[in-house]
Amino acid sequence: xxxxxxxxxxxxxxxxxxxxxxxxxxxxxxxxxxxxxxxxxxxxxxxxxxxxxxxxxxxxxxxxxxxxxxxxxxxxxxxxxxxxxxxxxxxxxxxxxxxxxxxxxxxxxxxxxxxxxxxxxxxxxxxxxxxxxxxxxxxxxxxxxxxxxxxxxxxxxxxxxxxxxxxxxxxxxxxxxxxxxxxxxxxxxxxxxxxxxxxxxxxxxxxxxxxxxxxxxxxxxxxxxxxxxxxxxxxxxxxxxxxxxxxxxxxxxxxxxxxxxxxxxxxxxxxxxxxxxxxxxxxxxxxxxxxxxxxxxxxxxxxxxxxxxxxxxxxxxxxxxxxxxxxxxxxxxxxxxxxxxxxxxxxxxxxxxxxxxxxxxxxxxxxxxxxxxxxxxxxxxxxxxxxxxxxxxxxxxxxxxxxxxxxxxxxxxxxxxxxxxxxxxxxx
Length: 428
Hints:
The protein is mainly beta. The protein is 7% helix and 49% strand.
């Protein structure tokens, strides 16, 4: 009996001490942290369903995706429009015009028709006279993943705003790097913030169209246009280029981001993996296979049956991973990982012959020789650290285009060991 009383006493004392200790922790447990508050921004149709116009050239302020076509470079100014640059002399590119397209992020071109998003709509624009573009067709709500919300409009972007808050350890969000509040706003810890937003690619590979970067979500392949919204692959027949006709909409996965054409296949990069679709019947893409990876932002580039996939951390990508995955896709139904390489913060990329140009964001542009796929990082040829690099297009073995926060930069790449700057169209 005495032993039983002793045990009860011990349990009681332990409970009292534990409660007191926890209360002490709760009294002292709080954290003041700096967050980026992502505030939803909405637009009504009257805000963007307007005519497209061309203005005099203007300085770049925030470069986005880009596209090369017939010695012209089209550089997106996020949600505003497109800078048109005459590149007949790469050492002296001329900023010619600015095409106003509200809500524009992506473009592709076939003949004299420019295909561009305008927030939730897909536009077909006649640019035969670049000074007087005309909208020929508007396919509405192609990219309206959340639909129209009465009294608010369409959700078009998330605007980052600094926010300081004190969080108590009893709060379920204590210690989290990212969380939602009130069902709308998203808070992202400032020390992990990446400005790349949730945009929802590849080089076009036939006569009559141009060449895009690895971050794009539009591509023209012969007489078909393929576009991505946040979850779907949409095929358009371009028999009449002025009036694209939807032939099939295919659900792929949530948060698909980039599209890249390769032979009779298209490769789609998402935040959770790479998806391959067969377009031998171009009107009806068919799923072939996929390769899963950790959650991260994910462009893909394919060359000589090798897929190069960059994974990076960021606001919308969550996972703290920065690496290059190299995959063997010679057996298209069974992609095989050859090797993963640690990187700093990889974004877009381009490969020509055995040379890989890898954009590392604020860490610049890296150049690798890829003949030995098991030892790519041991064969680094050059590292240009002077510029922020977002995406790249190899026009030839001697000519590379790079776009980033510093602007549009062109390099002479005839010697991959020593890239030489040809010109820069700098941001304001």
